[in-house]
Amino acid sequence: MDTNNVTPIAATLLENNPQLKLLRDKGIAAYQDGTLFIAESYVTDSGVVSLQAYCKKNNYRINKEIVTLDKVSEINNSTVSSEVGISNDSKSKAIQTFHEITRIAAQANASDIHIISGKNGAIIKHRVNGDLITIPVSLTSEDGDLLRSAIYTNLTSIAGRSYMPSKQQDAIIPIENLSRHIQKKVNAIRVATTPLDNGGLMVLRLLYDTGLDNANSLSDLGYTEKQISIIEKKHSTGITLIVGPTGSGKSTTLKIILSALNIFYDGRKHIMSVEDPPEYSIPGVNQIPVANMETTEDRDAVFNGVVRASLRLDPDIIMIGEIRDLVTAIIALNAAMTGHDVWATLHANTPLGAVQRLVLMGVNINLMAGPSDFRGVVSQRLVKILCPTCKISFKQLSDHPQLYERLLRSGTIGRLTPIIESYENDIHFRGVGCAHCNETGIKGRSVIAEIFENTRNSKVMELLIAQKWPQARAQWLAEGNKTMMMHAIELIKQGLVDPRDVEDILDEIYYEEVAHV
Fold first, then answer.
1. Can you tell me the distance from the alpha carbon of 446 to that of 433, in angstroms, rounded to the nearest whole number?
2. Residue 488: closest CA among 472, 500, 470
3. For residue 57, how many C-alpha atoms fall within 13 Å in the half-sphere facing its CB?
4. Coil, helix or strand at residue 185
5. Is 50 exceeded by the pLDDT of residue 277?
6. Distance (Å, rounded) from C-alpha 208 to C-alpha 212?
7. What is the number of alpha carbons within 13 Å of residue 295 lying toward its C-beta?
8. Would you say residue 6 has pLDDT above 60?
9. What are the distances in angstroms from CA 174 to CA 149, 157, 481?
10. Domain 218-380's class?
11. DSSP β-bridge partners for residue 202
């Protein structure tokens, strides 16, 4: 390769050129040893043409080679590795660090690992029972950069592609790339990265073989008998949505529902799922994975294509991992309207809010009018369950003046007054921790939920179709339905949860909700 045409100064200036950086991030051009490598399908790209014009204007004499997209990725990958100083030895140490932090995380049943690099170093955090806990490891900022790069480049199933610190990327680490210490517990790890203003962030979501402390039924999850009777009604057609924010246990709930359906029908129904990617292995369910798309646009296109294709595979029951856009929503509703029992997740706060969100996406609300097409919505959250050994009762607060002062200052005591009057002996708060709960004060989590069931001649649905949202909510309550807050208050009365943890995930406890329980 002839590099005599480029002076070292010119090469350095070009390395730092923002146009080149953008082309590298897009994965359509690379620069190494004085040669500009251009992906063959992007020769006429405006950015590529503009960069060449820039070089000509500034007398930067460069060689040019037209190569494949894979070759561009390979060169960019080696360049990024070189820039952060990745030797084989350093890379090996970074991967050892990954295996160690995932082992500790899996041992603590952590749902996520955060690797955060900033100016003053890198920190590792584990999310356990919904809380982020900083892990005592000493890492420089460079260590953090190297760790993220090694994970993405060497361990994900799209290994070989460039880790781009300046762009958001998603990938999956398959089970064969995990250490043997966690392979019996964790199926895979989902990877998401993003640049920060002074560093970078990588979040690793651990996909366990089972969820929520090995729950095997909706009752184990924390659903009430009435809620279970609604969810477990058998339908031949129609769509049911499970909604809630990220980390609210939607996938675990669906795993239990599909497992129960498989057992009930004894293999007589073809059950399929389309997931991005499958979080749990579900016996009797044909699970179609969708992963490793580098952009959201690619992911959505592929996901919707797979959902369409799955409907040609003669399913009776189909689970769609997540409705993210209008296209997926229409496909899901069409499936429900053409003789399929459909289950799907959606990010929404409440059951009626889920209907509102679908309308905002562009779905015609009249498509959801009939109960044989639109069955309803289950909304859920996860609340922490107190350790029975070290939890602190209301009467013991006199022995914990600092906790009592915090409860008074925050107004929690005042808001609990209607409950305290009748359940003073039962209300408990989180303790400082003990050997039984790994010093956390928490012994797991439970679902709190609320449900909208669409029925024939539903007055709630009539109001929803008229888009009278507040009136629909009032009608739903008037019909005797319970909110998530009411569900949570029942757990407070039983001494199972700390009222502060309820307020953390919902809102402040207020009298109207207490009065309905």
1. 19
2. 500
3. 7
4. coil
5. yes
6. 9
7. 6
8. no
9. 17, 6, 42
10. alpha beta
11. 115, 193
Q: Is the CB of residue 238 less than 8 Å from the CB of residue 194?
A: no
Q: Which residues of 250-259 are buried (b: 16+ CB within 10 A; e: fewer)?
A: bbbbbbbbbb
Q: Which of the two residues, 136 and 318, has the higher pLDDT score?
A: 318
- 10-27 in b/e burial notation, b at 16+ Cβ within 10 A? bbeebeebebbebbbebb
Please answer whether residues 146 and 242 qualify as being in contact, where contact means their C-beta atoms are separated by less than 8 angstroms.
Answer: no
- The CATH topology of domain 88-208 is Beta-Lactamase (3.30.450)
Report the distance separating Cα 77 and Cα 73, nearest Å: 6
Q: Are strands 317-320 and 341-346 parallel, antiparallel or unpaired?
A: parallel
Residue type, 292: N
Query: How many other CB atoms sit within 10 Å of the CB of residue 45?
Result: 16
Q: What three-state secondary structure class fits 57?
A: helix
Mean pLDDT rounded to a whole number for the chain: 86
pLDDT at 32: 76
Q: What pLDDT, in 10s, does the model give residues 170-214?
A: 888 988 889 888 988 898 899 999 999 888 999 999 988 766 656
In the chain, what are the domain boundaries?
Answer: 8-77, 88-208, 218-380
